[in-house]
Every structure is written in structure tokens, then in C-alpha cells.
Design goal:
The protein has 162 residues and is mainly alpha-helical. The chain has a single domain, classed as Ferritin, CATH 1.20.1260. The protein contains five helices and no strands. The chain has helices spanning 4-33, 37-63, 83-110, 114-144, 148-158. It binds hydroxy diiron-OXO moiety. The site of hydroxy diiron-OXO moiety has 8 residues, from helix 1, helix 2, helix 3 and helix 4.
Length: 162
């Protein structure tokens, strides 16, 4: 049986994962508006991953004989200036998510909740991967500055994400 506190915190995390999906969808909209279809595709795959993160927590609560209460999702930022601005914002967002996951892990450890710890380990690893993939794109965009050729090359590269 999962503690009430842990169930409540995981329920909050479902909201946060769904907010990530929502935020990244808004970024898809930005890239589509800029005719950067490769960037849009990459971010759409990311939005779907966030959805899956939410569902993984959702199903876990039922596996532990608890329940989900969906919370409201705030309107995401939508006034991005350029692709670098988008990716910097997304990277910062991922750092916040990492902190959220680490806080959950700390709670699981404190409660000797080994099952939640095991689940959260998956998210800890996932955050390492996600921080890294966002940061690589931030670094690349910082290097290419105003080169539209390099931007279109990156757009082509990002269109290949599966
Ligand atoms: Fe981006 O990892 Fe979930 O939120």
C-alpha cells in the first residue's frame, strides 16, 4: 500500500508531466508557424513522451490500489523569440522536472517505499537523457547564431527523431 502523501505527490507529478506535454505542444505550434518542420516534429515526439510519463505514473497509482484525481493545467508560455529561446526555456523546464523527480525519490526513501523508489529510478535515468538531449540542441543553436544554413541543417537532423 502506498502512503497518502506519496500518492498525493505522484498525483501532482501527473499534472506536471501533462503540463510538460502542453508546453511542448505550444512549442510545436511555434515551430510550425516558423516553417521549421523538423524542430516541430522533434518537439511533438517529446510532447508524446511527456504524455507517456504521465500515464506511467497514472497506471502506477492504480497498481498500488490508489487513485488519480486530475488537476487543472495552466496555460503555457507562448511568446518565444527564436529557436534558441524555445530550447533554453525547455531545458530550464527539464531541470525543474528533475528536481521534482528527485524530491519524489527522497520521499520514497524516507518512507522506505521500495516500489516507488524502483519506479522513480526509471524517471531519474530518463531525466539524465532528456537534460542531455535538450542541452545539446541549446549548445548547437548558440554556436550557429544567425546562420540560416546551419539552422536548416539542424531542422533536417531533428526531423529524423523516432
Ligand atoms: Fe521531460 O520528462 Fe517528463 O516531464
Amino acid at each position: 500500500m502506498i502512503s497518502e502523501k506519496m500518492a498525493k505527490e505522484i498525483n501532482f507529478q501527473i499534472q506536471k508531466e501533462l503540463f510538460s506535454e502542453y508546453l511542448y505542444l505550444q512549442m510545436v505550434a511555434y515551430f510550425k508557424g516558423e516553417n521549421l518542420d523538423g524542430f516541430a516534429h522533434w518537439m511533438e515526439v517529446q510532447a508524446k513522451e511527456e504524455h507517456n510519463h504521465a500515464i506511467k505514473f497514472f497506471n502506477y497509482l492504480y497498481e498500488r490500489n490508489s487513485k488519480v484525481e486530475l488537476l487543472s493545467i495552466e496555460k503555457p508560455k507562448n511568446d518565444f523569440k527564436n529557436p534558441l529561446d524555445v530550447f533554453k526555456y525547455a531545458y530550464q523546464h527539464e531541470l525543474t522536472v528533475t528536481k521534482n523527480i528527485n524530491d519524489l525519490m527522497e520521499l520514497a526513501k524516507k518512507e522506505n517505499d521500495y516500489a516507488s523508489e524502483s519506479l522513480l529510478k526509471w524517471y531519474v535515468d530518463e531525466q539524465v537523457e532528456e537534460e542531455n538531449s535538450f542541452l545539446k540542441i541549446v549548445n548547437f543553436l548558440e554556436k550557429i547564431k544567425d546562420s540560416s544554413n546551419a539552422l536548416y541543417m539542424l531542422d533536417n537532423e531533428l526531423s529524423k527523431r523516432e
